[in-house]
Amino acid sequence: MSVVVIVGDVMDDVVVRALGPVEVGSDTDSEIRRSPGGSGANQAAWLASRGVPVRFYGRVGASDVDAHAAALRAAGVDARLGADPELPTGSIVVLVDAGGERSMFTDRGANLRLSEADLPQDLDGVAHLHVSGYTLFEPPTRRAVVDLIAEALRRCVQVSTDPSSVSYLREMGPERFLALTAGAETIFPNAPEASLLTGVAEAHEAARRLTAHYPTAVVKLGANGALLARRGSPPLHLHASANPVVDTTGAGDAFFAGYLAAMCSGAGPDEALHAAIESAAEAIGRMGGRP
């Protein structure tokens, strides 16, 4: 099987799950977990867990290179991490409410200085490139990643992307994101991201309109499942599994990995969507963003 390359963020996660109503101004009993994370790194770990050869490129603080590379290697990922001599590894505090939904307080740290030197110098043997939207939101990283996308398209390597963050996407502007990712085969937005990118609130129509820009749009609907829209065909809606929700951290990353792993194994898009939903269901049943 050819290699999948993923480019994205690496983070130090602190996930806080309140065990009761939040006592504002006082103590709330909570379950707290510290772990390596970052959307791109999580995607790579989930994809490797599905047996797909995956190589990940990101940037961390210089003192953390060995630890984060070791964590990714333990997950089966070929990790190629750049070392930032000044900025620390990105970090995030994730507050999980009783329904499993998250609010995130983010310091992207060294991820903000991902550069051409941190990215693959050639794409020999690469079948697929996935670019996390986080890498496109800041000018220094954006230039290097857009050049990599162009090289992948020149070599006929399939490209996929995900918008990653509705707040950062809104700040950047949806038109610019669409322009920067032109040529990608597949996009993996959630419903708010799909709505922002198309200006349409209704998820089915937003998914359909995304196919004007990408041949395939796979829209995550959370507890309502997911939509698969292919250019020229009506969107397919599959419902989510009725699994208990512990923590939704990493669910979208697991969803992406389930879909792409199925496609890499020769499954059709409909079957891949089912695999994506099952993979996300596994992720929400436990704390943390990785398998």
Report on this model:
It contains nine helices and 13 strands. By secondary structure, it is of the alpha/beta class. The longest helix is centred in the middle third of the chain and has 16 residues, at 139-154. The chain has one domain: Ribokinase (UDP-N-acetylmuramoyl-L-alanine:D-glutamate ligase, 3-Layer(aba) Sandwich), CATH 3.40.1190. The strands form two sheets. Strands 5-4-1-8-9-10-11-12-13 form a nine-stranded mixed β-sheet, sandwiched between helices. Helix 1 crosses helix 8, helix 6 crosses helix 7 and helix 8 packs antiparallel against helix 9 (269-284). 33% of the residues lie in helices and 26% in strands. It has helices at residues 39-49, 65-74, 139-154, 166-172, 174-180, 191-198, 203-210, 251-264, 269-284; strands spanning 3-7, 11-18, 30-37, 54-61, 78-84, 90-96, 102-107, 126-132, 158-162, 186-187, 216-220, 226-230, 236-238.
